[in-house]
Design goal:
Length: 216
């Protein structure tokens, strides 16, 4: 009886430590989707972020509450799967080299309070509708993303939220997109023939000038 009780307690403890499947899959997608040239995610092994104490991951029970990966040298785009972390309260990714768009799926993080994406290289339009959905937000930092643009109505964000949008193009004119490349099949029709294949008649005056002078 004692043995069965010990086994039952161990099973319950293990179950409490295990990350819920949804959060585990979201962080696995993040691990697979970003570049980690400095090895900051080397502790991200196994399939249990909470139980295996993954770097930068803080949990309560089986739920991931915080993802704190500031200044870790991470590169690439932020996977949209982060929007599956339903109980996330802090998302701190500042000071890395993330590029591309900020995922619209972050609007699913309805318990999020801190969103720090500053000092990266995000591009495109700020996902304003996603941000308006974050009713618990208290601190939004997007500063130092120099080409991040788009309109953001700050009056639709939580009234007491702290905002930093400096050194971005938010609520300013977005840069014009680069022109599309000229299609190669058009180039084929407009290409000039090479000079080597073009012959020109030699003027008669030039031919006459090459004759040797007559002896006197």
């Amino acid at each position: 009886m004692f043995f069965r009780l010990v086994c039952l307690l161990l099973v319950i403890e293990s179950k409490d430590a295990a990350t819920n499947d949804n959060d585990s899959r979201a962080l696995e997608a993040f691990r697979a989707g970003v570049g980690d040239p400095e090895g900051a995610l080397r502790t991200w092994e196994g399939l249990d972020p909470c139980g295996d104490s993954w770097e930068g991951v803080a949990c309560r029970g089986e739920n991931v509450l915080q993802l704190l990966l500031a200044r870790k040298g991470l590169v690439g785009t932020v996977p949209s799967e982060l929007g599956r972390l339903a109980h996330l309260q802090m998302l701190v990714l500042n000071g890395n080299s993330f590029t591309g768009a900020i995922p619209h799926s972050l609007g699913n993080l309805t318990e999020l309070r801190y969103l720090w994406l500053d000092s990266n290289y995000f591009t495109g339009f700020v996902p304003e509708e996603a941000l308006y959905n974050l009713e618990e937000l208290t601190d939004l930092n997007l500063q130092s993303n120099p080409v991040l643009c788009g309109a953001l109505d700050v009056s639709r964000l939580p009234e007491n939220a702290t905002l930093d949008l400096s050194d971005t193009l938010i609520n300013q004119e977005c840069p014009a997109p680069p022109p599309p490349p000229f299609p190669s099949h058009h180039l084929a029709h407009h290409r000039r023939p090479p000079l080597a294949s073009t012959t020109f008649p030699v003027p008669i005056c030039a031919r006459l000038s090459r004759k040797a002078p007559s002896p006197h």
